[in-house]
């Protein structure tokens, strides 16, 4: 299926590795020009951009901390200058600290809320004027199922991401008339190098929570994001889609 992303410009936050990188590669494979945002992983983001251009696509890496509104605005301005517009925003950047709430301190809370909730607010605010120009803009937020069904040890990031769901549903209502959609994909446990030791220690127990009896891979997530970002997603808005091997069914 051709997702008809040729001529579209996408900005993916946290695109240097893992889920964000898989999303960027999937959008590029479908023909979109891709702006890869990173905060600290410059080398990986540049390498991903080179990989896309080597395959005949268009891509460029942009450094910005999404918790910094001025930096996000400057990044979006640069993307629009470089690529001539912006049609798709994927808010994938995230920060999660697994710890018991009672053991956490304000210093633990702020970075997670600043990245996950304010990051999404900043990126949406900077991108929306450009998305609306095209009459078929797309916003896709990436969150975790912890924000919908709760998870011990992830209360702060879950709270921040519940805010993202509310933001996206409200934006879906506000932007619908301009043809811009706003949706969320809500992930179960996707295997990445983070938490590797914890994951290996708990793999059997964790896998039993998933009806399909395996944890996720970044490539389980990317195709659905590409579909929502495509013209085929034009009548899907304000939705939260769980990509979780059946971990949650609400
Ligand atoms: N993996 C899972 O099981 C899982 C489950 C539920 C939800 N999620 C969410 O899904 C998304 C992708 O997951 P993942 O496992 O691929 O995440 P990840 O490996 O932790 O990568 C997160 C990315 O976010 C970027 N980032 C963090 N803070 C940032 C900031 N302030 N400004 C800009 N970029 C920032 C990082 O960029 P740099 O490396 O450049 O700093 C990194 O590339 C994340 O939002 C994550 O919270 C993941």
Give the N-terminus to C-terminus distance in angstroms: 29 Å
- Please state the second-level CATH architecture: 3-Layer(aba) Sandwich
Total strand segments: 7
CATH class: Alpha Beta
Strand content: 5-15%
Q: Which residue ranges are poorly predicted, with pLDDT under 50 across at least 5 consecutive positions?
A: none
Q: Let me know the CATH homologous superfamily.
A: NAD(P)-binding Rossmann-like Domain
The H-and-E topology, N to C, reads as EHEHEHEHEHHEHHE
Tally of alpha and pi helices: 8
Question: Mean pLDDT, rounded to whole units?
Answer: 97
Class of secondary structure makeup: alpha/beta
CATH topology, what is it called?
Rossmann fold
Bound molecules: NADP nicotinamide-adenine-dinucleotide phosphate
Instruction: Provide the helix percentage.
Output: 40-55%
Radius of gyration: 17 Å
What's this model, at a glance?
By secondary structure, the protein is α/β, with parallel strands linked by helices. Helix content is 47%, strand content 15%.
């Amino acid at each position: 299926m051709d997702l008809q992303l040729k001529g579209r410009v996408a900005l993916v936050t946290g695109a240097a590795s893992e889920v964000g990188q898989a999303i960027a590669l999937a959008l590029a494979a479908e023909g979109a020009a891709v702006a890869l945002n990173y905060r600290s992983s410059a080398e990986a983001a540049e390498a991903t951009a080179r990989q896309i251009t080597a395959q005949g696509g268009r891509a460029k890496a942009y450094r910005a901390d999404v918790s910094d509104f001025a930096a996000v605005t400057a990044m979006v301005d640069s993307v629009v200058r470089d690529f001539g517009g912006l049609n798709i925003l994927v808010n994938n950047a995230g920060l999660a600290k697994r710890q018991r709430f009672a053991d956490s301190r304000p210093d633990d809370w702020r970075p997670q809320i600043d990245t996950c909730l304010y990051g999404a607010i900043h990126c949406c605010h900077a991108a929306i004027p450009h998305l609306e120009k095209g009459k078929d803009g797309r916003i896709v937020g990436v969150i975790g199922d912890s924000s919908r069904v709760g998870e011990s040890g992830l209360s702060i990031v879950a709270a921040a991401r519940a805010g993202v769901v509310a933001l996206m549903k409200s934006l879906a209502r506000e932007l619908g008339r301009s043809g811009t959609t706003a949706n969320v994909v809500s992930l179960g446990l996707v295997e990445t190098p983070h938490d590797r030791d914890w994951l290996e220690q708990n793999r059997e127990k964790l896998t039993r929570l998933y009806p399909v009896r395996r944890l996720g891979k970044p490539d389980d997530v990317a195709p659905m994001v590409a579909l929502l970002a495509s013209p085929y997603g034009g009548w899907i808005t304000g939705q939260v889609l769980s990509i979780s091997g059946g971990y949650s069914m609400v």
